[in-house]
Design brief:
Blueprint: E1 2-8, H1 16-26, E2 30-34, H2 45-49, E3 55-59, E4 67-71, E5 75-79, E6 91-96, E7 105-110, H3 124-140, E8 147-152, H4 165-168, H5 176-189, E9 192-193, H6 194-198, E10 208-209, H7 216-219, E11 222-223, E12 226-230, H8 232-235, E13 238-243, E14 259-263
Parallel strand pairs: 1-2, 7-8
Antiparallel strand pairs: 1-14, 2-4, 3-4, 5-6, 6-7, 8-12, 9-12, 10-11, 13-14
Length: 265
Amino acid sequence: MVSVTTWNINSVRLRMPIVERFLAEQAPDILCLQEIKCQESQFPYEAFRALGYEHFAVHGQKGYHGVATVGRVPFTEFSRYDWQDNGEARHVGVELTHGPGKGTIIENVYIPAGGDEPDRTINPKFGQKLDFLERMTRWADKVDRPTLIVGDFNIAPLESDVWNHKQLLKVVSHTPVEIETLQRFMDAHGWADIGRQHIAAPARYYSWWSYRAKNWRDGDRGRRLDHMWASPELAAQATAHSVFEDARDWTQPSDHIPLTTEFTF
């Protein structure tokens, strides 16, 4: 069995105490982080090593974005794609090299949020988000290995992925054009949405709550922005999926929570 977690940590150095707590309590084999917000030389390698995580693929930049994959099981860095087409650190891929799942590819991605206005003519960031997804789609059309792609997709595609479908239809992350663009990416490789395979719609399933809500549990205005998608043959080996909402209550939390999938190879 191999377990993989994805988590937009919103600054790994600032939130290392809760990362350490999560790893001590849950101990996934692979942890994929987004928005690490540091350069590769600044990444807290020793803190991870102290917990038994000795394998790293870190793609960072100063102060913004950045992704990192760390593991208790061996892997090698496999890919770095510039789907943003501007040099931002938003992706890293690894290949498992030993034991169960050997040869499996795990792609870790942070898709742009897209700004506030869902109109690329007045909001260039929204256009960049759609273009990012189109580049991912062209890549996915050629994927020929068992692949897991995880991360902060910044899109909640289903009506039950948001707290209020009608109210959010014109809000970036749940607009029809984003959902259609994400669907083209899904269709390009026939990705399986592991989360919704295990927590079937219309069941409540969120991974993000705004910092603006002081009591996030009572209001529960969540969205499912984080995803774990797999090639069909790999998705068939996903035996469990969990959503760790408690982390949103921890001291200095991220606005996102960890999602974990277990694979039995």
